[in-house]
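Standup, Tuesday
Yesterday: got the pipeline producing structure tokens again.
Today: sanity-check two examples.
Blockers: none.

Example 1:
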Amino acid sequence: MSTTAYSGTWMTSEASWQYVSDLTPNTTYYYQVRFINNGHTVISIPMSFKTAAAEDGIVVHSIARVLNNVDPVVGGTYANGYHFRFYLTINALWEDRLEFKLANWSRTDGGTMAVANNTKVIVSEQGTGDYNATGTTLTNTSYTTIADVWDMDADQNLGGRQLYLDLFYKIPTGSQGVYTTSFGIQSSNRCIGNDGGPTLLEGGVWQTAC
């Protein structure tokens, strides 16, 4: 199929991918691909993509309690504890490591519920209700690496990297009352090049080897 090309400058690449830099956040870009071989030229149909809303940072779109038709049990397990689901966007695609922290739950009269060894976090593209799935058990209240997300994106039609974070909490023995907590989420790049930036794209995704 051949069609009229957009006005602009063609970028030449001998590889099957092309790295593009200096794009503006929250902007839709239109492009076409031109193939030249043995004197024949084929131009693709017009395509588009939208960049993330910002150059960096994380947006938490929603936090929902997931009900599993089982009442929470004090001194129970992940199966009958609490389950919360975060839906978030990592704006910078080259930031491929996700870190999470959760403060100990606090009660107005001074009681607490510990995070350590009572909290499991699972990151995925679809969200999961399976607390036995591969995840990370938090052992403290500091930032903990919970996933390398270089190959995850729940919605490739949107800018940035969309992910689900499922948090499972088993309620410690002796816990009663109303508790509150706070959390933190941050992303980073685990493969930094010599120039202080991300490593070169390989096959359309950021390199996984450091």
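Example 2:
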Amino acid sequence: MRDFCSGAYTRLVASRRIALVCLNYVHLLPVVEKLGLLGREGTRVVLETHDIQACQHAIRTQREVDEIDKELELRALSDVNAVVAINRAEYDEICERNPWAKVEFVLPTVRIRDEISRKWRPGASQLSAHWLDVWCDREDLQNLFDLRTPHSLNAFLMWTLLCGRGEYPMLEIAPDLAAIADAPHPDFSKSTEGTKISTVVGWAWGSRADLRALYPGATDPSHFDRQGLLNWLKDEGTREYCLEPDGSLAPSGSDRRGLPPVSPALLEAFVLARLFWPGRHNSRPRNTVIVCSLG
């Protein structure tokens, strides 16, 4: 907890508008409090109990439940804006012993529409906190990419590599994302000489009608259009898309806007769920950071 509440994190929290803090277990409340988020205007703190920790400690140590510890734990639930209980018996006990806590009982069931689940590979979008922060700042990007489907997430990934890098050259491109960009595009077979068309160059060709009109046969390694596309890459593509002559990404910056690394799958879950203020399901997270799932 000492590291998490270091100066860098407290400065980051102080400089951002934070709509929602979601944390697991009551023992993480001191972290939220030390970061200045508990009771902060405009910030909701939602706590998922999972289990009453005093009971879990008793089970692990094979002893009787410490009732004083349990009383303190249940009393602390009054400090947050909302409590989510996933166990009916514990929900009933919390309501009985702390009627001031705002508790909801929710079965831990997640349903994903069939058309999403068939194509869903968590983390495939390589979404990062700093590029999501760019999306939050720009209404034009929010209108172009709603980030509610795998297709939209993939389209935003393509924008990041094709356009975003040029607009934000100091922002970091994670190694996994760079590897995707540099890999051979599956629709462009390698030539007999081993020359490849990188994924990012293939995306540029696919997204631009002028390139497809100039080099319609570029996917065929034996067609003269392939060499035409390679010549375009060396003459213009390297400058337009910040690429090396072989089609790989030119070096980028390392700035992450002061945001810590977060699992792409966790960020995808957030943007798909749209965990905003109650009654504002269509609102966009303008200048907002979500501290999600501490635990």
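Quick observation on example 2: Residues 7-109 form one domain. The longest strand covers residues 20-24.
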